[in-house]
Amino acid sequence: QQEKEDLPGKLKLREHLSQTAGKSEATPAPSKNIDLEMKQLQCKLKNSNTEIAKQSTTIKSLKEQVQEREEWIRELQEKISQLERDVTVKSHLIEDLRSCLKANQENEKTSNEALESLERKVKALAEDKKASIDSMKQMFNVAMKEKSQYEQMYHKAKDDLEKKDLKITKLERKVIETECAMTELETAASQQLHGLAKQSTQALETLQKQLLLTSDKVEEFKTFVKTLTGELHHSVRELRTKIKLAKKMGEMKACKNGLSQESLQLAASILNVSTTDLYKILQEGDDEETAETKMEFEKDKEWLQHIQKLLEAQFPFASYLMDAVLEKLNEKKKLVEEYSSLMKHTV
């Protein structure tokens, strides 16, 4: 690119040399051979100038193509840079570009210095007419070499453009492949999330069912315990009343005015009252027995409250509940033994 930029300056320099050659033609030549040689050289110079002009036009067109390709490459690089998120690579690229820019600036300085030195040389060559012919020959040779160099550069640029086209096609394929991979990953992730959501809903439903079953079981257990304790309490109270009635019957039998159990039940049925109520009627006026029944009633009430607290308490409470139930069963056992002994004595 620097050589392309330096080309118009060199063309101007050659035009200047051709003008100096025209001025040298105005002065009388020492011989006809020199004039002929000058004319031949001028013709060659004109041909070389036309060839250089053609090459410059082709170079300009190539430069425009290269700019278009560079713009296209920049656009593709921007698209690729959006997909890439590596900040460190970008920083390294920026540092490389800065170093390249510094190198390019240094090259520009050296090229400017070289141009200044060439202008000085051209002025020195213009002063000497004889040396101008040699310089023109040399410049013609240089122009031919540059022409061959430009042709080589043209071919290289063409090859580079083809390589860049191949790279661009590869990059486009890679971009398409990455986009396809991203879409596949998104679909797979959405499917996995959908499956996980289904599994979580199913698990929640099963857990809710299990919770309902466990709550139902707990309620059934509570009702069982309540009914069991109620039955125990009721049976203990009946046993107490039966024992008291048996004691009363024993006392009444001792006084020869006693009644049998069957007669008491018959009297209770006639009066349309329970045996406990009949016992209360027969027991009116006995303060000690009423105080004892009150104490037993309070103990039973406390025992029922204790059972309710154990059912409402946190786990584990089975051992405490078992102790309370065994306590009541033992009490019932003692009452049964006492009642059976009383019944034997009364019989």
Structural class: mainly alpha
**Which value, in Å, is the CA radius of gyration?**
62 Å
Contiguous low-pLDDT stretches (5 residues minimum) are 255-259
Number of helices: 8
Count of strand segments: 0
Terminal Cα separation, in Å?
A: 137 Å
Kindly estimate the percentage of residues that lie in beta strands according to DSSP: under 5%
* Secondary-structure element order, N to C: HHHHHHHH
Could you characterize the architecture of this molecule?
With about 350 residues, this protein is mostly helical. The chain has helices spanning about 1-25, 30-85, 85-125, 130-255, 260-270, 275-280, 285-310, 320-345. α4 (about 130-255) runs antiparallel to α7. The longest helix is centred in the middle third of the chain and has 126 residues, at about 130-255. It is rod-shaped. The relative contact order is 0.05. The model is unreliable at about 255-260 (pLDDT under 50).
Identify the notable features of this structure and list them briefly.
347 residues; mainly alpha; rod-shaped; CNTLN; CNTLN protein
Q: How would you sum up this structure in a few lines?
A:
With 347 residues, this protein is mostly helical.
Layout: helices, strands, pairs:
Layout: H1 2-26, H2 32-83, H3 87-127, H4 129-254, H5 261-271, H6 275-282, H7 287-312, H8 318-346
Helix pairs in contact: 1-2, 1-3, 1-4, 2-4, 4-7, 4-8
Biased composition (Basic and acidic residues): 1-17
Region (Disordered): 1-33
Protein name: CNTLN protein
